[in-house]
Amino acid sequence: MISFTVRMRFAQQDRAEIAEILQALTEASRLEPGCVNFIPHWVQGEPCAVLIYEQYKDQMAEEAHRQSPHFKKYAVAGLYQKMLERSREDLAALA
Question: What pTM was computed for the model?
């Protein structure tokens, strides 16, 4: 199982557009056969920060996600064009 979070920061004026993009990306990503979880969050206390919790059954499923048309449309051509900062944390389950 591959688990990680992606944290992004956006300009305040882009908040509504980011919410729309994330909704579309989430709906499409959850339909991928290898996607276990894809859950975007607004970070409380930081109105311009988003944290996405993602899980994929394996490395091939994560790569399929990155190569999908919806990832290229909503993440690469959408979120990536608006974000001011981005970081990723890979997770290892304790049990």
Answer: 0.94
- The torsion angles phi and psi of 15, rounded to 5 degrees, stand at -55, -50
CATH numbers and ranges of domains, the chain = 15-83 (3.30.70.100)
Closest CA to 8 of 92, 93, 82: 82
CA 26 to chain centre: 8
What is the spatial distance between Cα 12 and Cα 1, in angstroms, rounded to a whole number? Answer: 34
Each residue's pLDDT tens digit, 37-70: 999 999 999 989 999 999 999 999 999 999 999 9
